[in-house]
Structures are given as structure tokens and as C-alpha cells.
Design a protein that fits this description.
The chain is an alpha/beta fold and 334 residues long. It has helices at 40-47, 69-75, 91-101, 106-119, 135-147, 165-178, 191-197, 215-220, 239-244, 275-284, 299-308, 313-317, and strands at residues 2-11, 14-24, 29-33, 55-60, 63-64, 76-79, 153-157, 183-187, 200-205, 208-213, 226-233, 249-258, 261-268, 289-295. Strand 7, helix 6 (165-178) and strand 8 (183-187) form a beta-alpha-beta unit. The structure holds adenosine-5'-triphosphate and magnesium ion (MG). Magnesium ion (MG) binds next to helix 1.
Length: 334
């Protein structure tokens, strides 16, 4: 659905996107992540033909972004970073206007606008002037605009930016639902959202791709293990040795020992929840415990960890940034 090769953008001599290559297959929901200024919006704008590239090439929905930009735009629903709505128009009027611009006939426009408003839960505000809507509703109108012509591909640039936690949760459900019908490339800073909705994540930093993999594999690559806290009545030994022998446990350290209680930090395999095995030990040994809690590694941990690592010197110096993919096949959730 997207095939980018050596795509590059230079602004006044400064390289914002540095020869990146990646692909998005039909039906995928791909998260496009990176710190501020990484080049996410620039890339998305090139793919949607709103910005011309300085080098490289890309095909979107089978069409070249240079040669067939009209066909590309027709097949892509794009929600830019700052949704450019017409503030003086009413919601339904605006969406009808947008659908007509996208080439829908009168009859198709009516049903398409109704459907898009349904999907984006805009019932009740269709007659409101856009300027009077709250930020969350404006975002929904922007999303309804992006999908009104039922594009194969949705490209969403921070669609949840500025929303409250409740709205973020709702939008997560919405994106999951949209993913059943559309291929989606979504840029966002809300990593819990990505972890739950995206099958694959592309991480870009300073204009170069640093990783392209499933959230699960990225967490697996994390250098820091997951951890469990266990507090039991009694001293350090032999409990420490017994805990270290439990399956999936990598290391046991003592957090504190006071008033006859000892608290252990138990480092485990990043993806292994060792709590059940630990509890089996607790039962077997008849321990008195007052805490057993896990802190599983998240995509956020993986993201921070990855960006702290220095980029490989060869990639940083060269002008090409080949897509980096883990060797590990991801079989989870497929
Ligand atoms: N029109 C422009 N003229 C000059 N430089 C620009 C322009 N637009 C973006 N840049 C620069 O290009 C780089 C990438 O910007 P971009 O907006 O793509 O980042 P981003 O990953 O979307 O960041 P954010 O998370 O903040 O949205 C930044 O250094 C930015 O300052
Ligand atoms: Mg951006």
C-alpha cells in the first residue's frame, strides 16, 4: 500500500528526512513514532503529496507520488497535524463540501457523510458551526473528513493530539474499528495506544528509521528486563535463592529489609509474567506475603531505550537508511 524508497526532504540545506525506505502492506495498522522534530509529519506530507520530496521515490496505493499525485490523493484519507477546517461552516455542510471536492456525486455524498459522522460519533453536532466545537469534536470532524470518500489508506498525523484521556480511549477503539476496513499509518506520541492498536511500529529519529517491528518484538529487544516486587515476612535467605530458581527469573535483589519483612525486586524476562510461578513458590513454602506486583515492560520503555542507544555509525554517516527489521519472526497475535 505504501512503498517508500530513499525518500528525502531537505529544508534550506537541512535534512529533515534522510533517505528513508519502508513499506506498509494492505490491511496493516502501522504506528509511525519518533521524538519531536524527527521528521514524521514531513514524511506523511510527502506521502500524501502535500509536500514535494527532495529525493527518492514513493508509491502509494500503487501510484507514484510525483507522477500520479491526483490518484494518490483520491485513494488516501489524510488527517494532518493541524486539522484545517473551515471554522465558519457547519459540520455537515463542511463534510458534504469535502466529499464533493473528493469527487463524490450528490447521492453518494449524502450517504457517505452520514456514515462518516456515524463512525466518528458526530451525532448531535452536525448543525454546529465548526468554530464553536471543542478540540475533541474538531478532531473527529477532521477524521470524518479523512474517511468520507472511503479511502483504502488512512494517514493520520497525531489524531489524538490534545484530547482528554477518555477521548483518547474512545479514539483507540475507533482506530481499531477503522483498521478492519482500511490500511492505516498513524503518527502519535501516545504509546499505550500504539501498543494496543498497531501490528507494527516504525520508529524514526533525526530523519532516519531506527526500527520497524511489532510492539512485541521491540519490547523483546529491550535491554532492561521486566520486574516483579515481592515482599515477604522473614529474612533474605534462603528466600532469595529460592526466588532466583523460579522459571523466567533473571536476577533477585533486596530492596529493603525492615521490621522482619524483606522486599525483593525480581528481574524477569521482559515478556514473561512470572507472578504465577512466584505465587506457586509462596504457597509451597507457606510464606506470609503482603505484596506481589508486576511491572511489565511497555512499548514506552522500548521506545526510550532505543532512542538512548547511539545510532549505528555507518547509518548516521551514510545517506541511505535501509529499513531495519528484527530477525526474530513475530508469531504473536497472528
Ligand atoms: N516548513 C519547514 N521549513 C523548515 N524546516 C521545517 C519545516 N517543517 C519542518 N521543518 C523541520 O523539519 C524537521 C522535522 O519536522 P517534522 O514536523 O516532520 O517533525 P515531527 O516528527 O512531525 O515532529 P512533531 O512530533 O513535533 O510533530 C524539524 O527539524 C523541523 O524543524
Ligand atoms: Mg509532526
Amino acid at each position: 500500500m505504501i512503498e517508500a524508497r530513499q525518500l528525502t526532504k531537505r529544508y534550506a540545506g537541512r535534512t529533515a528526512v534522510d533517505a528513508i525506505s519502508f513499506h506498509v502492506e494492505k490491511g496493516e495498522i502501522v504506528g509511525f513514532l519518533g521524538p519531536n522534530g524527527a521528521g514524521k509529519s514531513t514524511t506523511l506530507r510527502m506521502l500524501t503529496c502535500f509536500l514535494s520530496a527532495s529525493g527518492g521515490s514513493a508509491k502509494v496505493a500503487g501510484y507514484d507520488i510525483y507522477g500520479d499525485s491526483i490518484e494518490v490523493r483520491r485513494r488516501v484519507g489524510y488527517m494532518p497535524e493541524n486539522v484545517p477546517l473551515y471554522p465558519d461552516m457547519r459540520v455537515d455542510e463542511y463534510l458534504r463540501f469535502r466529499a464533493r471536492i473528493k469527487g463524490l456525486g450528490w447521492r453518494a455524498t449524502r450517504s457517505a457523510v452520514g456514515e462518516a459522522m456515524d463512525v466518528c460519533s458526530l451525532a448531535g453536532v452536525e448543525k454546529k458551526i465548526i468554530a464553536t466545537l471543542s478540540k475533541g469534536y474538531k478532531q473527529r470532524v477532521g477524521l470524518a473528513d479523512a474517511l468520507v470518500n472511503k479511502p483504502d489508506l488512512l494517514i493520520l498525523d497525531e489524531p489524538t493530539n490534545g484530547l482528554d484521556p477518555n477521548q483518547i480511549r474512545q479514539s483507540r477503539e475507533l482506530i481499531k474499528r477503522l483498521g478492519e476496513r482500511h490500511t492505516i499509518l498513524i503518527s502519535t506520541h501516545i504509546l499505550s495506544e500504539v501498543e494496543m492498536t498497531c501490528g507494527r511500529v516504525i520508529i524514526i529519529d533525526r530523519g532516519q528509521i531506527r526500527a520497524s517491528d511489532s510492539p512485541r518484538n521491540l519490547i523483546r529487544r529491550l535491554r532492561k528486563p521486566g520486574s516483579v516486587i515481592l515482599e515477604r515476612q522473614g529474612g533474605v535467605e534462603p528466600a532469595k535463592t529460592q526466588l532466583a530458581a523460579v522459571a523466567g527469573v533473571k536476577e533477585v535483589s533486596v530492596i529493603h529489609e525492615r521490621d522482619g519483612w524483606t522486599s525483593f525486586a525480581i528481574a524477569t524476562d521482559p515478556l514473561h509474567d512470572a507472578r504465577e510461578d512466584l505465587f506457586a513458590l509462596v504457597r509451597r513454602e507457606n510464606w506470609n506475603i503482603r505484596e506481589l506486583a508486576s511491572r511489565a515492560a511497555s512499548l514506552e520503555d522500548a521506545f526510550v531505550d532505543l532512542l538512548q542507544q547511539q545510532p549505528p555509525a555507518t547509518t548516521a554517516a551514510s545517506t541511505s537508511g535501509p529499513e531495519e527489521t528484527s530477525d526474530e519472526p513475530d508469531t504473536a497475535g497472528e
